[in-house]
Amino acid sequence: MEIVCLDLEGVLVPEIWIAFSEATGIPELRRTTRDEPDYDKLMKYRIGILNEHGLLLKQIQDTIATIDPFPGAGEFLDELRSLTQVIIISDTFTQFAGPLMKKLGWPTIFCNTLEVAQDGKITGYRMRCEKSKLTTVKALQSMGFDTIAAGDSFNDLGMIEAGKAGFLFRSTEQIIKDHPQYPAFTEYSDLLDAIKKELV
């Protein structure tokens, strides 16, 4: 029995932090997991910038409300869910995910949680578990699932490598070059066809 594990940002929806960078005019917030493999380092960097500029959770949520899934993402997800079980495994946060999940038809998502002060200041974050994507895939495998994974960033490589099959989707030239063993796609139709071939 297979279960498909998908990344969220960069695969189904635009990068939240890039959208917020554009909304605020702060270019430093464009840095994502495509650029920085160390997630803890990246989040501390982001929180530092938010606090330096006095930016609160509500302002990020207001930007997220304007983000739509990539064209074709909803249809891709609907068809995939008609074929097999699908879980979105993301390093985003529960405080960010709701509006995006609504626009995608409420798929299952496993993600993390922000620590937020009463005044709305983001003070930290809590990972659901260590190496959350790889740990989740291994847990699913321990329950008898064969996992198939797709993502675009450094933090997706663990779950891609660990599964029955793994794919890069709209990844960077450098990641694709460094990991030629994983088929790389840019169109949902091609990714869907590749996943279908792995389904028993």
Poorly predicted ranges (pLDDT <50, ≥5 residues)? none
User: What is CATH's topology name of the domain at 2-13 and 70-112 and 128-198?
Assistant: Rossmann fold
Helix content: 40-55%
CATH architecture of the domain at 2-13 and 70-112 and 128-198: 3-Layer(aba) Sandwich
Radius of gyration: 17 Å
The CATH class of the domain at 2-13 and 70-112 and 128-198 is identified as: Alpha Beta
How far apart lie the N and C ends? 7 Å
Order of secondary-structure elements: EHHHHEHEEHEHEHEH
Query: Mean pLDDT, nearest integer?
Result: 95
Q: Based on CA inertia axes, which overall geometry fits?
A: globular
Strands, count: 7
Short description:
By secondary structure, this protein is of the alpha/beta class.
Tell me about this structure:
- The chain has a domain at 2-13 and 70-112 and 128-198: HAD superfamily/HAD-like (Rossmann fold, 3-Layer(aba) Sandwich).
- It is 43% helix and 20% strand.
- Strands 4-3-2-1-5-6-7 form a 7-stranded mixed sheet, with helices on both faces.
- The protein is of the alpha/beta class and 200 residues long.
- The chain has helices spanning 16-24, 39-52, 57-64, 73-83, 94-103, 132-142, 157-162, 173-178, 188-198; strands spanning 2-6, 85-93, 109-116, 122-126, 146-151, 165-169, 184-185.
- The protein is globular.
- It has 9 helices and 7 strands, in the order βααααβαββαβαβαβα.
Defining key terms:
200 residues, alpha/beta, Rossmann fold, seven-stranded mixed β-sheet, 9 helices, 20% strand, globular
